[in-house]
Amino acid sequence: MHCVDVGIIKTMFQDAQQARDWLKEQGYPVQESLINSPPQLKPSASKHISEWIPLVKIETPDYAPFHIYWVRFKQECGTGDLRYVVDAYLKKYPQVLTLFIGSHYRKGKWGSLLMCPEPQAKHWYHACVTDELTPRNERLLKALQYNPAEPVETLWRRVYRTLRGETMNARIKEAFESFIMELENIRAEIDAEIQHATQHGDYIKVQELAREAEQLKELIGKVQQLRAGNTTVNSTTKSARSTRDNEDATPKKAFIIPLLQALVDLDGEAPKRKVLERIQELTKDQLKPADYEELPSGGKIRWKSKVTGLRNKLIKQGYLRADTPQGIWAITDKGRQYLEQLKNS
Q1: Taking the CB of residue 98, how many other CB atoms lie within 10 A of it?
Q2: Residues 100/113, Cβ–Cβ less than 8 Å
Q3: pTM across the whole model
Q4: Distance of alpha carbon 132 from alpha carbon 151, whole angstroms
Q5: Fewer Cβ neighbours under 10 Å: the N or C end of the chain?
Q6: Which residue ranges of the chain lie beneath pLDDT 50?
Q7: Which domains does the chain have, with CATH numbers?
């Protein structure tokens, strides 16, 4: 295993002393003495171990114990034997987060070894690190960097994930994150424009912006799927209905002013049927054929369903009354003020 030190690549971890010195350079609270003290495992497991030396033991009341051991396995020990030893250790010490740094004879030569067993899932991941400084080895060295302020679980999990292997290069992930963030900023700007157009009663503009927002939302979803490694991006029936709802129908926000205005026109309160009739009169020039379609979920008319949902939202915001008899809708003084604010802004 290698690390880069002042531009010089040096071999590491040929023995416990080298491993301990490297960990100390990283700031780990290493053990002062190197003592070979194998755990009390069953003989069928311990027979594969030549050296078992504690290098780091971090035990605090706030976190699970975190140990790093140097382990040298006997020359005849195969990969299956490594698994057997690790499983035996996990069964006896399931509460300890453990990293094993050691030496293993493989393919006719001794090589460095890094293992990170998962206590709960009983999984274990190991890396037989060669004499070459590969990108994966560099990631392992970076993952092993120690920060005293960082919870040991975070350190252990980082090494565990690195050993499992990442589905995508970290720089590519960062590029995806940056792209998604920029798209989200654009969507926020469109939402602000929709609100402004709604306040001015420009429902045609609202519909145009809503279509842009929906297209952008779909794009963000596809990028997120690609970031997650899902290269097959399919449109589901649900998303198709959502697209139809937003592209061909009037958005819910466009009904805010008509709903409040309808209640004012009806002396502040009225049965739901009367309110919907008045809203239809106010918006008859804006409503589209898709607004009159029945929803697949239960036969309700699309625009009426949106208004009903909008009413619930306005109640929570204090613009409509929540204490009316069933079937009666009513506006509050705050709602009247809000309507005037929207009409005058």
Answers
A1: 19
A2: yes
A3: 0.46
A4: 31
A5: C
A6: 1-11, 122, 129-133, 167-168, 231-246
A7: 2-164 (no CATH), 179-247 (no CATH), 253-344 (1.10.10.10)
